[in-house]
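Q: Is it fine to ask for two folds in a single conversation?
A: Yes, each is treated on its own. Send the first.
Q: Here.
A: Result:
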Amino acid sequence: MNALLQFIADPSNGYLGHTIDYIKLCGIAIALAIVISVPLGVLVVRSPVASFIAINFSGLLRAIPILAVLVAFYPILGFGFLPALVALTILGIPPILLNTYTGIRGIDPATIDAARGMGMTTLQIVTRIQTPLVLPIISAGIRTSAVQIIATATLAAIIGAGGYGEYIYLGLREFDTTQLLAGALPVTLLAILVEFALNWTEYALTPAGLRVKSSIEGA
């Protein structure tokens, strides 16, 4: 442990810079995946053809190894941050897109009809009925996407994007346990923290009535 702390504290190892690079890469990739996936999921749900294409294409993206995506974009975007960002964003899109689509499709039409019968406007239905019901499901997709991105971003070091992956690869190549732990431990901790934070967010966004229903069904 002392060797690990000394390694982190040594300015020549650039640990702070690698940490910033990793968090920036993951954070931007997660944000882009959300910005792309949520509106797309809302748009395609109205068209059976668009839904079929989007959902199946999303499933195809999940089947493509991230290394293949990195290699595919290398001739176009070269080394560094940008190709890694594109690859990780692609990795993060499917869970959010699928959950957005599933959440909207899962709303009982009778609920919407009842809201209209009570005199609610379209805006009120969207903000008071649909959004509270869909947000927890979208949040679950974001949680899955974020953890996948954080756990996979170490591979970005292969194409010179920096981050903790460099320590992992150097540790494996040089049989250096200190460097290996310096890369692997923070990735693990970051993934766990994000998992717990987004799990709490998902719970907080779930309407109280649905929480009661879930607890009764699980009893």
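Q: Second one now.
A: Result:
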Amino acid sequence: MPSEFSSNDSRDPEQSPFFALLVVYLKGVAMGAADAVPGVSGGTIAFITGIYERLIMAVTQLDPRVLVHVPYVYNRDRRDAFRTALREMDVPFLVAVGTGMVTAIVIFARFVQAALSTVPAATFAFFFGLIGASALVLGDPQWRTQSTCLVAAVVGFSVAFLIAGASAGGTTASSVPVVFGSGMLAIGGMVLPGISGAFILLLLGQYDHLTETLNEFVDAVVDLRSGNVTDPLVSEGAVVLTFSAGALVGLFSVTFLVRWALERHRAATLAFLVSLMIGALRLPVLEVLDATQEWTLLAGLEVVTAGAVGAVVVFVLDHVTADLEY
């Protein structure tokens, strides 16, 4: 990799390559854990752990032309050229980060699904706290004095508010185009500090469905060890493959678009993203109301406590990272 990375990319040259990749993997696990729940961004975790700049540069310098070496890997010179190209694009780093994120998402998805099944009101209240506090932390009062930011904020809030209303109660169809598009948009959210891929899925009404699908697919893969090929391996696997294909396309389109927008219209882009989060608060509110059959003192206390815990998580994270420039 080039040497222009910032000093917060703390790679120790005396570390063994394996240990260095293990550290990167663990940072990917932290990012995946954050992205598995709506509100906290994996991009924020990348900032905290000092790999955000390296991650963005690695993603945006991937060149598919390196694949021309693949048919000739039997040749030593072409094999060495292929290996060198992968190192120059920092592919080992991306593989370590990606593997860590997938590991965490697979694990946390099971906990989230269990929470949504057993305590849906408290879970969505927790999401409300995460998203609402994130919007407060990322918001900038100066946006109110800039017309472009105000317009972007109104558009962002309106879009999210309308989509959240349509998504509440799981009314959004999980068709192939919707799942593919969700993958495209979610991967863009995953690399943004302040907005998570899970938040995008929640806004689109796909979060619960895709979480359940992922868990069923993982269970089907585990069943392969005993020689059992179950239906979910094919049916749920097709959904996972469609989402992954969308994520791959999004990685090379949405990510570049977001980077372009942030470089040229940073304030307006951030105002739009934060307003998306505010407008999307309609969804957890509707879900809490739908999941609460009777409002008792205990039910209200449970919802308020869960929301407060979600907000505290974000505020503590913001306090720890107060010196970071988002």
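Q: Anything structural to flag on that second result?
A: Two points. The chain has a mean pLDDT of 81. The two ends are 24 Å apart (CA to CA).
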